[in-house]
Amino acid sequence: MKLLLAGAVIAVSIGFWRYLRRMRRRKKQAAPFAVPHGATISSVPLLAQEEVALYNLLQMAVQERYLVFSQVPLWSFVEVEAGETVRSDVLRQIALKRVDFVLVHPGSCQVEQVVQIEHESSQSHQAERQRVIESVLDAAGIKLTKLSLRESHSLPDLVAQLGITAEE
């Protein structure tokens, strides 16, 4: 009898504890976001000076054939169709990955090409990040072009590297 009573008390305690946890989570979710006191948020440049020069050259190279966007999250232009667990795993892998530039067809609004800047950094996390991006782009059938900021690019050279022809 005492054992049954003790088990009931423990079960009720655990249930009450879980109920309180859920209530606290709901309260946190319901409160509107506000910048915490003591935190400072400021604007920073989206692109470095060399990247801006490359962006402007890309704009001239593609003219009206493509829209050019920079620093685009990978998940925003690919769709992952898989079982729940696999889909979650893939999305988790690509969640914080961004590509340097995307060329978007103005009619279909589909990303047709990605331009990545080759960074000098040989850090393993950068290499793994790039492998994930390349794997996803390959699976999605999106062309990838890598450019180095160390090299100067002429307009005709860039047009050739992007594979843009006059009849497009």
Give a description of the structure.
The structure is a single chain. Helix content is 47%, strand content 17%. By secondary structure, the chain is α+β, with helices and mostly antiparallel strands. The protein has a domain at 49-162. A four-stranded mixed beta sheet has the order 1-2-3-4, with helices on both faces. β3 (111-118), α4 (124-140) and β4 form a beta-alpha-beta unit. α2 crosses α5 (155-162). The model has no long low-confidence stretch (mean pLDDT 87).
Features of this protein?
4 strands; 47% helix; single chain; 4-stranded mixed β-sheet; alpha+beta; 168 residues
Structural class: alpha+beta
As a percent range, the share of helical residues equals: 40-55%
Calculate the terminal CA-CA distance, rounded to whole Å.
84 Å
Strand order, main sheet: write it out: 1-2-3-4
What proportion strand? 15-25%
Radius of gyration from the CA trace?
25 Å
Shape: elongated
Find the count of extended strands (DSSP E, 2+ residues): 4
Return the average pLDDT rounded to an integer: 87
Summarize the structure.
With 168 residues, the protein is of the alpha+beta class.
Strand and helix map with partners:
Elements: H1 2-30, H2 49-62, E1 67-73, H3 84-94, E2 98-104, E3 111-118, H4 124-140, E4 143-148, H5 155-162
Parallel strand pairs: 3-4
Antiparallel strand pairs: 1-2, 2-3
